[in-house]
Amino acid sequence: MLKITDNIIIGGNNRFSLLAGPCAIESEEMTIEVATELKNICSRLEIPFIFKSSFDKANRTSVTSPRGVGIERGLQILQRVKSELNIPIVTDVHESWQCPIVAEVADILQIPAFLCRQTDLLIAAAETGRAINVKKGQFLAPWDMRNIVEKLRSTGNNRIMLCERGSSFGYNNLIVDMTGLVEMRQFGVPIVFDATHSVQKPGGQGNATGGNREMVPHLMRAALAVGVDAIFAEVHPNPDKAFSDAANQIKLSEIEKILRQAIEIDNIIKSATK
After folding, report:
1. Which CATH number fits domain 2-272: 3.20.20.70, 3.50.50.60, 3.90.950.20, 3.40.50.1010?
2. Per-residue pLDDT reduced to its tens digit, 29-45
3. What's the whole-model pTM score?
């Protein structure tokens, strides 16, 4: 189990936690709007909630794609979410120098999938003492994540989560192998399922990533049926107008219905393992 705050413990037989928010910070107003609504929904459903949004999307398909508001402004906005709404924060880091700065605000540092083998980045993130959520690279087998866990643990930091987000078989598609969730359990860390990035079609629109958000609820329920400790999902008031991941973010107006269904699956699995 992994303690994030006094009220949020990920793992064990606890209700799954939700790491969610817009893919990128687009504006302070929209960020606060989504964070507030997600907090209210999760409070009603008794789901532990951690807010996620990125100050920089450094791995965009095209050089002309918007990347976000930058680290300084982004952390100011995330700090406001954390302070005013009393919500813990998870956000991406892309370079080693960012880690100690981001750790001043974020409760969880997230390692993007394409960077999951970057030793210097992993070490710098772990040395902050914050919890680390590592996205499994689209190019890695589940058992290859053992080496990544060992890199992080070499710093003395055992506050680790591993996140499945699909495997690439080329031709702008991702496949989720649910057995990989079971395989990664053997490393003794909480397992997260990224329900929205798993339906991406990387580069599928030529100069942008496509996706299929209609498949998100199905994959989310399947992962919970296998047994995961947390769900990662990107949520936006108007996904089609989003800076990034427009095709696979969940509509804010639809997330409560999806989560209610997810809870039913989680209840069955958790009751069966008591």
Report:
1. 3.20.20.70
2. 999 999 999 999 999 99
3. 0.93
